[in-house]
């Protein structure tokens, strides 16, 4: 029974990096080389959510250590985000994150005349779409 438990632990430990990093990295590179934007949205959404999840874990680390099933719950959640049958990352982004960013005025405004930025100054200064910079095209 000890060998079985060791094998199960090793599989669980190896599954995390594969599900959370290796496969999304591979799929992101493939998505960048396709003409469609649907897969780009899925994988960019994934990395946004994964970043939020990682930051949340850093902040709540001492609390999460007391939840023994946290890593398993996280692994199942990330698998749902990653698996192409579900497109979970795009779903979460479109239903939750996009709405919060819209609500707080973080998105750049598309206006015909240049006006003062509506974003907080710090967000305007670090925005990838500042004036004079063109967005990367496929």
Automatic annotation (TrEMBL):
Membrane topology: Multi-pass membrane protein
InterPro entries per the UniProt record, alphabetical: TB2_DP1_HVA22
Gene Ontology CC, one term: membrane
Membrane in keyword set: yes
Alphabetically ordered keywords of this record: Membrane, Transmembrane, Transmembrane helix
Primary subcellular site in the record, as a coarse category: membrane
Region (Disordered) residue spans: 107-138
Compartments it resides in: Membrane
Ranges that cross the membrane: 6-31, 43-63, 69-93
Feature: compositional bias, Basic and acidic residues: 128-138
Family assignment from sequence similarity: Belongs to the DP1 family.
Protein name according to UniProt: HVA22-like protein
Species for this entry: Brassica carinata
């Amino acid at each position: 029974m000890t060998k079985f438990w060791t094998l199960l632990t090793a599989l669980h430990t190896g599954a995390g990096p594969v599900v959370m990093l290796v496969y999304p990295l591979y799929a992101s590179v493939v998505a960048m080389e396709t003409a469609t934007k649907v897969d780009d949205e899925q994988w960019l959404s994934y990395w946004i959510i994964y970043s939020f999840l990682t930051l949340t874990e850093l902040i709540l680390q001492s609390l999460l250590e007391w939840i023994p099933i946290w890593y398993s719950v996280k692994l199942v959640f990330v698998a749902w985000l990653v698996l192409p049958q579900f497109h979970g990352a795009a779903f979460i982004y479109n239903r939750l994150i996009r709405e919060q960013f819209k609500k707080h005025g973080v998105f750049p405004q598309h206006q015909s005349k240049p006006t003062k930025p509506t974003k907080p100054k710090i967000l305007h200064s670090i925005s990838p779409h500042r004036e004079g910079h063109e967005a990367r095209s496929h």
